[in-house]
Amino acid sequence: MELQRSGISLIYRLEIANQGNMFAKLASLVGNAGGDIAAVDMIRVTQEAVVRDVTINVGNREHGRQIAELLDAEDGIHVVAVSDRTFLVHLGGKLEIAPKIQVKNRDDLSRVYTPHVARVCEAIHEDPSKAFQLTIKRNTVAVVSDGTAVLGLGDIGPYAAMPVMEGKAMLFKQFAGIDAFPICLDTKDPDAIVETVKRIAPAFGGINLEDIASPRCFYIEERLKTELDIPVFHDDQHGTAVVMLAGLLNAAKLVRKELKNLKVVVVGIGAAGVACTKMLLSAGVTNIIGVTLEGILHRGREYENEIWNWYKEHTNPENITGSLDDAMVGADVFIGVSGPGVLTVEHLRKMARDPIVFAMANPTPEIEPEVAAPHVRILATGRSDYPNQINNVLCFPGIFKGALAARAYTINEDMKLAAAQAIASAIRENELREDYIIPSVFNQAVVQRVADAVAEAARRTDVARREVMPKDNF
Ligand SMILES: NC(=O)c1ccc[n+]([C@@H]2O[C@H](COP(=O)([O-])OP(=O)(O)OC[C@H]3O[C@@H](n4cnc5c(N)ncnc54)[C@H](O)[C@@H]3O)[C@@H](O)[C@H]2O)c1
Ligand SMILES: O=C(O)C[C@H](O)C(=O)O
Ligand SMILES: [Mg+2]
């Protein structure tokens, strides 16, 4: 596969002396240093100098720093400040709450607020199911995290987790029209998390658990699923697994291999790794090898982590032992949901013909895509800046849209499988290519396709509380 990488974009505020052709000099300095000027804005002009904001695309932060040093060392150029556009879009957070109706006069006020609102409260008191019709519960999801497994950054706490949760909430709204609220809890106690989520549930039609570390995430999700009557969905488990399977269905078609014959190596047997494995098993894959930091999971050992004991019983049919080096021999597929630097070119060389590599750790994949690309047939990552983005954003907006439309009280296996098939089928067979096994997150047809398939699966499996017509705009 061939790859092109996008870097980061920095804004340099420069004071440029009014002498000679300074801008041409600046442009050639930047160009020679490998930067790419994307925009120039005039900020102010004085007798001696002009101040401009110059947006420059650079490879990474270090490259950006080198360019700043280079410019500052030049006679007549002074670097006033460098700002990162990513930080600028985060100023003050990424979300706000907006009312759906304007209160223009006393009459409006008396309807949305006291006294008439009281009649609506009483109606819900008489029939609690009316909360779905008459409050934001109908179309609102809580994105709940404790900040313990934020992307691949680990336990960075609830404050640092907020930007990711705000991002997920934005995507819920933009892609599915669902209002989502980021909630980062200042506790790691699984029971306290369960109790808190239960107590805030009245306002929500669904709970999207996010970036909660394993193995606690399994307990928290299981309890909430049993104790709440709205869908509870741990995105890092099931969203990831759904999109991974969608990608694999298409990748297998492309290399003309059948799922049941594949040898799949999964690295990182946490939330995402366990769920991906369960999904592979239900799709008919039998030869799955799970690899942790301690090596291949096998039946010759008893593990402290309970889920790994479950894992060893359901995978590794030949009970092989050893490290990732041993697991990769003859593998058709690598699924990485661990961390950076796990996979090497040596590993890729051990794989079977037409290797399929899904290096899904965020933000840094298990292997640098540029390094892996020449050695594999199909490569996918979780990132937005490479082709084949296998990221749960392709799933959670649509799966919740379908579940909320059907007013489903849970999201079950059939609904997840339906979502995976809907995502995969968004690409027609004659459109499949090595760098196009998964539809873009901006393919607007995908969310509705997933939502329709999920609502239908909810109806078929008797978990829907509402009949949904296809394309129903609830
Ligand atoms: N692309 C996506 O849509 C997507 C979705 C979910 C998670 N992820 C990524 O997957 C990774 C794991 O997320 P999670 O939610 O499962 O976290 P988690 O904390 O539940 O599990 C991670 C597991 O990986 C293991 N691990 C870490 N480094 C390893 C290594 N070098 N070799 C073997 N095992 C290793 C850890 O011990 C842990 O068991 C993160 O990088 C996350 O960003 C990607
Ligand atoms: O947030 C993402 O980009 C995907 C996933 O939920 C992750 O934790 O990495
Ligand atoms: Mg996540």
UniProtKB/TrEMBL annotation:
<feature type="binding site">
    <location>
        <position position="362"/>
    </location>
    <ligand>
        <name>(S)-malate</name>
    </ligand>
</feature>
<feature type="active site" description="Proton donor">
    <location>
        <position position="113"/>
    </location>
</feature>
<dbReference type="InterPro" id="IPR045213">
    <property type="entry name" value="Malic_NAD-bd_bact_type"/>
</dbReference>
<dbReference type="InterPro" id="IPR015884">
    <property type="entry name" value="Malic_enzyme_CS"/>
</dbReference>
<comment type="similarity">
    <text>Belongs to the malic enzymes family.</text>
</comment>
<dbReference type="InterPro" id="IPR046346">
    <property type="entry name" value="Aminoacid_DH-like_N_sf"/>
</dbReference>
<dbReference type="GO" id="GO:0046872">
    <property type="term" value="F:metal ion binding"/>
</dbReference>
<feature type="domain" description="Malic enzyme NAD-binding">
    <location>
        <begin position="237"/>
        <end position="459"/>
    </location>
</feature>
<feature type="binding site">
    <location>
        <position position="210"/>
    </location>
    <ligand>
        <name>a divalent metal cation</name>
    </ligand>
</feature>
<feature type="active site" description="Proton acceptor">
    <location>
        <position position="168"/>
    </location>
</feature>
<dbReference type="InterPro" id="IPR036291">
    <property type="entry name" value="NAD(P)-bd_dom_sf"/>
</dbReference>
<dbReference type="InterPro" id="IPR012301">
    <property type="entry name" value="Malic_N_dom"/>
</dbReference>
<feature type="binding site">
    <location>
        <position position="236"/>
    </location>
    <ligand>
        <name>a divalent metal cation</name>
    </ligand>
</feature>
<dbReference type="Pfam" id="PF00390">
    <property type="entry name" value="malic"/>
</dbReference>
<keyword id="KW-0560">Oxidoreductase</keyword>
<feature type="binding site">
    <location>
        <position position="391"/>
    </location>
    <ligand>
        <name>(S)-malate</name>
    </ligand>
</feature>
<dbReference type="GO" id="GO:0051287">
    <property type="term" value="F:NAD binding"/>
</dbReference>
<dbReference type="GO" id="GO:0004470">
    <property type="term" value="F:malic enzyme activity"/>
</dbReference>
<dbReference type="InterPro" id="IPR051674">
    <property type="entry name" value="Malate_Decarboxylase"/>
</dbReference>
<dbReference type="GO" id="GO:0016616">
    <property type="term" value="F:oxidoreductase activity, acting on the CH-OH group of donors, NAD or NADP as acceptor"/>
</dbReference>
<dbReference type="InterPro" id="IPR001891">
    <property type="entry name" value="Malic_OxRdtase"/>
</dbReference>
<dbReference type="Pfam" id="PF03949">
    <property type="entry name" value="Malic_M"/>
</dbReference>
<dbReference type="InterPro" id="IPR037062">
    <property type="entry name" value="Malic_N_dom_sf"/>
</dbReference>
<dbReference type="InterPro" id="IPR012302">
    <property type="entry name" value="Malic_NAD-bd"/>
</dbReference>
<protein>
    <submittedName>
        <fullName>Malate dehydrogenase (Oxaloacetate-decarboxylating)</fullName>
    </submittedName>
</protein>
<feature type="binding site">
    <location>
        <position position="211"/>
    </location>
    <ligand>
        <name>a divalent metal cation</name>
    </ligand>
</feature>
<keyword id="KW-0479">Metal-binding</keyword>
<feature type="domain" description="Malic enzyme N-terminal">
    <location>
        <begin position="92"/>
        <end position="225"/>
    </location>
</feature>
